[in-house]
Structures are given as C-alpha cells and as structure tokens.
Design a protein that fits this description.
The chain is α+β, with helices and mostly antiparallel strands. The chain has helices at residues 2-19, 30-38, 127-144, 155-159, and strands at 23-29, 43-47, 51-61, 69-81, 84-101, 106-119, 148-149, 163-170, 173-179. The strands form two sheets. The chain has a six-stranded antiparallel β-sheet. The chain has a three-stranded antiparallel β-sheet with strand order 1-9-8.
Length: 180
Amino acid sequence: MIALIALLAVAAAAGYLAVHGKEYVYRIPEQVLRERLSARLPITKTYLILFQVTLDHPRISLEDGSDRVDAGIDVAINLRVDNAIKRLVGSLDFSGGIRYSQDTGEFFLTEPIIQRVKIEGLPDRYIDISKKLLAGALRDFIASHSVYSLSTTDATELGIRLALKRVIVKDHELVVTLGV
C-alpha cells in the first residue's frame, strides 16, 4: 500500500515537472467563434411578463492588438403594449473579455460593454428598460454559453489544469496563452 502511494506521488511530481513553466498557445479563428455561438442560438427568455427577448445571428470581429472580442447579435423583442403583442427587431453591439474555466476547459465572453442598441419602432417609454433587459439577457447568455472548448481527447489537456495567462487578437484569431 505504501509503495502504491509512493508510486502515485512520484508520478504526480513527474507530471507536474513535465508541464511546469510551459505555455500552451491556442489560436481560435473568428469563424470558429461565430460558428460556436451560432450553434447555441436562437435563445428566447421572458422578462417582467411584458418582454420576451430573442437573441440570434451572432457577429464576431477580432481586431489585431485587442484583448477583447467585438461582437454583435440580432435581437427581437415581443412587447406587450395595451393588451397586444408588438414584435420589434434590432441589434445589440458589444465587446467582451475572455474568461477561462479551468474546471471545464471552456472559454467564455465576460465583462460585456454594450456599444450600441438599436430597436426599430420601440416606444420611447420602453427604451431604458429595454436596454437594461437586453444587457441582462446578454450577460445571462454569455455566462452560460462558452465560445470555445479545449479538446477532451488530448491527453495533455486532460492531465493538467491550466491558468489563463494572456489573450490577444492577431491576424483575426483569438490567441490564448495558458500555462501552469
């Protein structure tokens, strides 16, 4: 029994030394991010009984030198006005940082900054609440839907828990550096 414990300790130490100090760089093209988000949409959620928000058709733009992902998404709002439902469509443009979950090996957009909201035909009295609801819908979506996952078939990725070191955009790819 003691020999088995000693063998496991030696194997764990050898594994740690094999990856300690190393960095792993992942290059994720714009198109892959767009496809990953598109596969999870559309998504619809009801807020305050009056609003039903649908998010669909994501857009991704990676600008060289940035550590954020520029994105946009089409929105549809079903709004209950005077006992009738009115459907309004528009778009939401934002940027987000990248968060890495060591537990799941997934990358998520985080800390969204909304740059533009445009909803055609939205009554003035609903503009502020609609922006808040759309911001909430966006935060809910990006918190629970990853934009990329590391392969679970790579033994290296399975054997270690990496920490996010750097994120930068280069040549329209998200360049993510992980390490121990």
